[in-house]
């Protein structure tokens, strides 16, 4: 009798993602953490619970003003204003700017101030790196050992946490703290034990500040439609409240499933390529889109990446390049410019969020940003942006040309920063600003708010007493050094509504400096026209001017932009 031989086993593909996949909202963790000690409640609900009750008593309508928040937390009014503005910048929807902050959104915002960012992995040759760029700062931790330029040369980008790693870290935080978070949203009812706290549909929706659901990875499903508790809830006939413990169990199950799904994808990535992997900060896949140029005089460039990942776009790793991205080139509402060096980056689009990280010797134009901009670990970078809110952290010798509706926030170990008024425009700028709500009549570019040098969210240890040190502020750019930045009109698409000048009014001192420069230029041009010399001498003079101009183009690196523009 012959025995049946078992069929050889074949590798199994990773399990498909659940129909509804829970994701953390990255924005509160990336743009919503403030290094203010009085906003960090390490004992969770023991202190935040009474704070919530105090705020609700002070504001029966559930909306908190800056004055009420300052009194409740015993913080200065400018810190209270910053807290409410930062909360508004990371909410899923745009709140009424005159209505104050919702108490429950505010409590969740205060709760996540205990979050610690994921640490970069240890550098593979930290001793060698320290020899060439010794760390003189206790505040930057690992990254202070690297200038931004060395960051890319050493290939340490691969040691910066990936998007999927950060998402898993955020999910783990939510998994650990979800019971407390739900307890802060719940309402007490008569009863004993777990049944004494319940969650209404309205309170449950506040969880949308921290989590979201997507059908097979696509975002955008309202929380009440994702849960079996409130799926058929109607404003006229709201669903009955649900025990908080039941909601916690349901959310925890989805967080566990999301963590397992991420782990399976990470394992699949280690075992070989797969078609459904997240784009990471370090290893985003190449996805070339509309016109861009990454040519250089030598005809070579570093590895470059322009990639997309779940409502985010990436511009990464460009060196000696000019890159142009318009609205049609960008997927989602958020963009990150990472590890670009000696380049010019034009992002001419309306966005909600933008991050610039680890760049050096680069000019970056960020069109119109409706929620928040974060500039971090940059060196000798010029950033030009029209935005509601900007945070600058751990930067050196950078200049920021700003059109901002809120005070610029400066935190961390910064050196020789300068701020100046906004200095450019492009054809669609005013249209983009109107789309995302940046107001050109309000520009607080010269009112930086400076916080501490130590960020309590970075998981690093710091010397005793350092936490009380204040970050170095930014100085105003000398008006005589202020110049307009010209953005070429590559596509020639102008209309009567096109922006034809800088929409942010210049302060008088900068305007006077510009008038003086224009007057000198006109005088020089007129003197050259009026000079009475022989025709061959005029040609020699013109030739000499052209030679000096060409020398300046090469010395400044601007010749590369001309080559790039010619290529486009």
Write the layout of secondary structure elements.
Blueprint: E1 20-24, H1 26-31, H2 45-58, E2 63-64, H3 66-73, H4 77-90, E3 101-102, H5 103-111, H6 126-132, H7 148-153, H8 163-185, E4 187-188, E5 197-199, H9 201-205, E6 211-215, E7 218-221, H10 223-226, E8 242-243, H11 244-271, E9 305-309, E10 312-316, E11 322-326, E12 334-338, E13 344-357, E14 363-376, E15 382-387, E16 390-393, E17 399-404, E18 409-411, E19 417-421, H12 429-436, E20 449-450, E21 474-476, H13 508-530, H14 535-556, H15 558-567
Parallel strand pairs: 10-12, 11-13, 12-13, 13-14, 14-15, 14-16, 15-17, 16-18, 17-19, 18-20, 19-21
Antiparallel strand pairs: 1-6, 2-3, 4-5, 5-8, 6-7, 9-10
Detailed description of the structure:
This protein is of the alpha/beta class and 568 residues long. It has helices spanning 26-31, 45-58, 66-73, 77-90, 103-111, 126-132, 148-153, 163-185, 201-205, 223-226, 244-271, 429-436, 508-530, 535-556, 558-567; strands at residues 20-24, 63-64, 101-102, 187-188, 197-199, 211-215, 218-221, 242-243, 305-309, 312-316, 322-326, 334-338, 344-357, 363-376, 382-387, 390-393, 399-404, 409-411, 417-421, 449-450, 474-476. The chain has 15 helices and 21 strands. The strands form 4 sheets. Strands 9, 10, 11, 12, 13, 14, 15, 16, 17, 18, 19, 20 and 21 form a 13-stranded mixed sheet that branches. It has a 3-stranded antiparallel sheet with strand order 1-6-7. The model is unreliable at 1-6, 8-17, 122-145, 151-158 and 274-305 (pLDDT under 50). Keywords: Cytoplasm, Cytoskeleton. Residues 8-19 have a biased composition (Pro residues). Residues 1-21 are annotated as: Disordered. It holds the Pfam family TBCC.
């Amino acid at each position: 009798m012959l025995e049946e031989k078992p069929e050889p086993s074949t590798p199994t593909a990773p399990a498909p993602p659940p129909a509804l996949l829970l994701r953390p909202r990255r924005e509160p963790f990336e743009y919503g953490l403030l290094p203010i000690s009085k906003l960090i409640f390490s004992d969770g609900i023991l202190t935040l619970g009474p704070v919530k009750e105090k705020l609700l008593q002070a504001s029966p309508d559930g909306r908190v003003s800056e004055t009420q928040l300052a009194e409740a937390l015993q913080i200065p009014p400018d810190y209270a204003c910053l807290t409410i503005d930062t909360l508004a910048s990371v909410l899923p929807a745009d709140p009424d700017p005159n209505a104050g902050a919702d108490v429950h959104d505010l409590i969740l915002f205060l709760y996540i101030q205990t979050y610690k960012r994921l640490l970069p992995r240890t550098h593979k040759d930290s001793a060698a790196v320290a020899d060439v760029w010794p760390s003189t700062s206790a505040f930057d931790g690992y990254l202070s050992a690297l200038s931004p330029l060395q960051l890319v040369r050493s290939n340490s980008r691969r040691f910066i946490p990936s998007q999927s790693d950060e998402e898993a870290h955020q999910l783990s935080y939510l998994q650990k703290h979800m019971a407390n978070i739900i307890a802060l949203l719940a309402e007490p009812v008569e009863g004993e034990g777990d049944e004494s706290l319940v969650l209404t549909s309205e309170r449950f929706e506040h969880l949308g500040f921290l989590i979201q659901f997507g059908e097979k990875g696509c975002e955008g499903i309202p929380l009440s439609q994702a849960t079996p508790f409130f799926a058929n809830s109607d404003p006229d006939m709201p669903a009955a409240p649900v025990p908080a413990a039941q909601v916690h169990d349901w959310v925890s199950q989805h967080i566990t499933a999301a963590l397992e799904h991420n782990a399976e994808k990470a394992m699949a990535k280690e075992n070989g390529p797969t078609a459904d992997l997240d784009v990471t900060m370090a290893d985003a896949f190449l996805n070339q889109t509309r016109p861009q140029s990454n040519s250089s005089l030598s005809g070579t460039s570093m590895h470059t990446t322009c990639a997309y990942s779940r409502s985010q776009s990436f511009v990464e790793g460009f060196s000696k390049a000019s890159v142009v991205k318009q609205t049609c080139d960008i997927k989602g509402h958020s963009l990150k410019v990472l590890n670009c060096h000696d380049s010019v980056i034009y992002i001419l689009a309306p966005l909600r969020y933008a991050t610039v990280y680890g760049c050096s010797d680069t000019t970056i134009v960020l069109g119109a940003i409706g929620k928040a901009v974060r500039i971090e670990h940059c060196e000798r970078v010029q950033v030009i942006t029209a935005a509601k809110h900007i945070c600058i952290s751990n930067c050196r010798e950078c200049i920021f040309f700003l059109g901002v509706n809120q005070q610029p926030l400066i935190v961390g170990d910064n050196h020789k920063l300068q701020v100046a008024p906004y200095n450019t425009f492009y054809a669609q700028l005013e249209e983009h600003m109107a789309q995302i709500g940046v107001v050109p009549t309000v520009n607080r570019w010269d009112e930086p708010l400076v916080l501490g040098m130590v960020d309590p969210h970075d998981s690093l240890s710091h010397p005793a007493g350092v936490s009380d040190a204040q970050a170095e502020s930014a100085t105003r750019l000398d008006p005589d050094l202020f110049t307009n930045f010209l953005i070429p009109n590559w596509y020639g698409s102008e209309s009567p509504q096109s922006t034809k000048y800088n929409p942010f009014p210049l302060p008088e001192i900068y305007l006077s400096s510009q008038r003086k420069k224009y007057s000198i230029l006109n005088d020089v041009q007129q003197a050259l026209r009026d000079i009475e010399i022989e025709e061959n001498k005029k040609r020699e003079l013109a030739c000499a001017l052209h030679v000096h101009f060409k020398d300046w183009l090469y010395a400044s690196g601007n010749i590369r932009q001309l080559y790039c523009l010619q290529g486009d």
